[in-house]
Fold each of these.
Amino acid sequence: MNTRAAASRFEWRVVDIPRDLPRAEALSLLNDHVEYGAWEMARAVTFIGGARRVWLRRRTIPVRRTDLV
């Protein structure tokens, strides 16, 4: 299977969460993305200073043109 084709099945969004944002607010922010945007968490990293970075992904549906004969 082509690596490029497999990578295009997902749309990605990176969310940076500052260290001074309380955990409850960060969870609420991510919950909104998951509930209303159909995102799922793929990866999360906490840095030494306390900042967090979260990678969200959602599946995309490839659309083929139907008006061509």
Amino acid sequence: MKKPRHFILGVVKKGDDDVRITRAERYVVQGGTKETHDQAAEFVAEIDREYVKDPPQTDGERRLIIRDAARKTGLLDQKKR
């Protein structure tokens, strides 16, 4: 049986005239201002680390990983659930 693989593509709409692209083995983040791009790249990198450490098997597990990554990177308020 083939091992599941993942690839994440992040596109940040808010931007300026600079071209920003962050590439890694399993993800690419493109666009954004310096601040929004860096934040999106860290968010995607956090998701990637979790997927590699313990690959999710269900949509519920995927949602938990995304929500936790959003909290860790400051995209989601720590108090909200």
